[in-house]
UniProtKB/TrEMBL annotation:
Signal peptide residues on this chain, from the entry's feature table: 1-19
Extent of the TPR repeats: 21-54, 55-88, 89-122, 123-156
Cross-referenced Pfam families: TPR_1 (PF00515), TPR_16 (PF13432), TPR_8 (PF13181)
InterPro entries for this protein: TPR-like_helical_dom_sf, TPR_rpt, Ycf3
Entry protein name: Tetratricopeptide repeat protein
Keyword entries, A-Z: Repeat, Signal, TPR repeat
């Protein structure tokens, strides 16, 4: 769900010798698509040498760093893109993703807010911001964002799962159970969802039969923590 966006713009400036900005940029994008991220950085560096104000090259350079797990370098590159042109949501969204990976959740929310303000039609923003809000225990706002994502596509098991965690954090076990049921209906291999569903059914509603069945399903799928609950609450 955490997309990284290039935001390619056309550049027509040609040089008297060597490759043009656009040719170098295109080669960088090809390297990104091929998974050769170091090579992509080299191409985008050459674009920036020709034109330091090429905001797309800075943004794409950040994408290449992000894909390598070099989140600090990615943040610098996205910030440079924003400094040149702060009207595109893409570098804000990308920088938010880098902050999210660094667990700098407040900074991530800030950037997602900027991105959302610039283009509220981009639904990936809602899910990613929801994750950051969930991490900061801003449960009501997280639920709102997950609902926005589900309005676009209700068949997203992972969104239902994280919405359930926000609902449980917000002391809404009934809502959480419904979201977890939606999760396992869409993703029957989500062991963590079965575990959380079983635990909630047992602890919040004393639904032993359903709770134990879901805990056993979680254990069958490899979720070892379910064994303790089964031993304590599901023995005849």
């Amino acid at each position: 769900m955490k997309k990284i966006l290039l935001g390619i713009i056309a550049i027509v400036m040609m040089t008297a010798c060597g490759a043009s900005e656009q040719e170098l940029f295109d080669e960088g994008v090809k390297s990104l698509d091929a998974g050769d991220f170091s090579k992509a950085v080299e191409y985008f560096d050459r674009v920036i040498e020709k034109n330091e104000s090429n905001t797309s090259a800075h943004n794409a350079r950040g994408v290449a760093f992000f894909q390598q797990g070099k989140f600090d370098e990615a943040i610098v590159a996205f910030t440079n893109s924003i400094r040149i042109d702060s009207t595109s949501y893409k570098p804000f969204f990308n920088r938010g993703n880098a902050y999210l990976e660094k667990k700098a959740f407040k900074e991530a929310v800030r950037d997602y807010n900027y991105a959302n303000g610039l283009d509220p039609q981009q639904t990936d923003i809602y899910y990613n911001r929801g994750l950051a809000l969930l991490a900061t225990e801003d449960y009501e706002d997280a639920i709102m964002d997950f609902d926005q994502a589900l309005q676009v596509n209700p068949n997203q098991g992972l969104v239902h799962f994280n919405k359930a965690k926000a609902q449980l954090g917000n002391r809404d076990p009934l809502g959480g159970i419904q979201s977890l049921i939606s999760t396992v209906n869409l993703d029957k291999d989500n062991a963590a969802a079965y575990y959380l569903l079983g635990v909630t059914q047992l602890s919040a509603l004393s639904q032993k039969e359903d709770g134990c069945a879901n805990l056993k399903m979680a254990l069958n799928l490899g979720y070892a923590d379910a064994q303790t609950w089964i031993d304590d609450f599901c023995q005849e």
